[in-house]
Design goal:
Helix 5 links the parallel strand 4 and strand 5. Among the domains are: 185 residues, Alpha-Beta Complex (Lambda Exonuclease, Chain A), CATH 3.90.320; 34 residues, no CATH class. The relative contact order is 0.13. It has ten helices and ten strands. By secondary structure, it is an alpha/beta fold.
């Protein structure tokens, strides 16, 4: 399938496109569409949150996040790794303490660009170089470097909903496809931490959505689309790990995506975007916390028996009555 160049406005229909990031994030679909970030809000928070974050529904102005220097380093490194992305504005200063420098930074963000201090730019360039060197040493990753970057996929789901994705890179072969997603950050990329990180960030929803969109556009590759993350540490030595979404990750992600689609379609049809329940709730005490405390009790009981002073865990029992209560219950 041909990748269509698109500069602004709405796309004509389903397909693979290359477009500026600002065009994608403004939602170029024929009707308001579901992206992975909106899907995560529908699953983890509420339709009201999704409406407030959607560029064609309730979102007002720019994102309210507070940019940090590490985030700027990651954003610029991301652009250098992919070879394209938002325009970068280098600021000749050591820090953001000066009012003039802060103003230049704000102006860059206001124009949809990414500002970065010169010293941080050097860090970002070094990070990108190390990623290229280390990724080349990982077997099975050579296709990343020549794959098209920032490719947008647009489909209309059989439910009627429009879905959209922006793939960092995508390899499309006659027999299979590989979707690549680069994640830079200040958190460790150690392999044993990635499962929890994927769940905490809702990355399984992203993987399932991206695979679904590409398989819909390329049905002859159904079941043969792989999703891979490249997790990169911003801090030296800028270690990286390549992780591939397994069947369980894609399966759970797909079920979460199904829930997001149901909530999205219901809210769109009724033009009603409810928030949290208007009622008093009783939060469920986590099973893991209960088990953890029960283990603690067993240790405390054992220690008390060794001292010959057995513990009474009933706070309402008589040993815990206030002093001076006499025979009162």
């Amino acid at each position: 399938m041909e990748i269509i160049e698109h500069t602004a406005g709405r796309v004509a229909g389903p397909g693979l496109y290359r477009m500026p990031a600002e065009a994608y994030h403004a939602d170029p679909c024929p009707a308001p569409s579901l992206s992975s970030s909106i899907a995560k809000l529908l699953v983890e928070q509420s339709p009201a949150h999704a409406h407030a974050a959607h560029p064609r529904l309730g979102k007002v102005g720019q994102d309210g996040n507070n940019p940090t220097r590490p985030k700027e380093i990651g954003a610029v490194a991301h652009k250098l790794i992919l070879g394209q992305g938002v325009e970068v504005v280098a600021i000749d200063a050591d820090d953001y303490t000066s009012g003039k420098v802060r103003l230049a930074r704000a102006e860059a963000y206001g124009e949809g660009k990414t500002p970065i201090l010169n010293a941080d730019r050097i860090v970002a360039e070094r990070l990108a170089q190390r990623v290229e060197m280390r990724l080349a040493a990982v077997p099975g990753c050579s296709g990343f470097f020549d794959a098209p970057a920032e490719v947008v996929g647009v489909i209309r789901h059989r439910s009627g909903a429009w879905l959209r994705t922006m793939m960092d890179r995508v390899e499309i072969h006659a027999t299979h496809a590989v979707i690549w997603d680069v994640k830079t950050g200040d958190v460790p990329a150690a392999p044993h931490t990635l499962g929890r990180r994927i769940v905490n960030m809702g990355m399984e929803v992203q993987a399932a959505l991206y695979v679904r969109v590409l398989e819909t556009l390329l049905p002859h590759l159904a079941g043969r689309v792989t999703f891979r993350w490249i997790f990169v540490e911003n801090e030296a030595p800028n270690a990286l790990v390549v992780a591939e979404a397994d069947a369980t990750t894609l399966g759970i992600g797909g079920r979460k995506l199904a829930l997001a689609l149901d909530r999205w379609n219901t809210a769109c049809a009724k033009d009603s975007w409810p928030g949290y329940p208007a009622a008093i709730i009783r939060p469920e005490f986590p099973a893991w916390a209960e088990a953890q405390w029960q283990e603690r009790e067993e240790r405390e009981d054992a220690a008390a028996r060794d001292r010959g002073e057995p513990l009474n865990w009933d706070v309402a029992a008589s040993p815990f009555r206030p002093l001076g209560m006499g025979e009162a219950a």
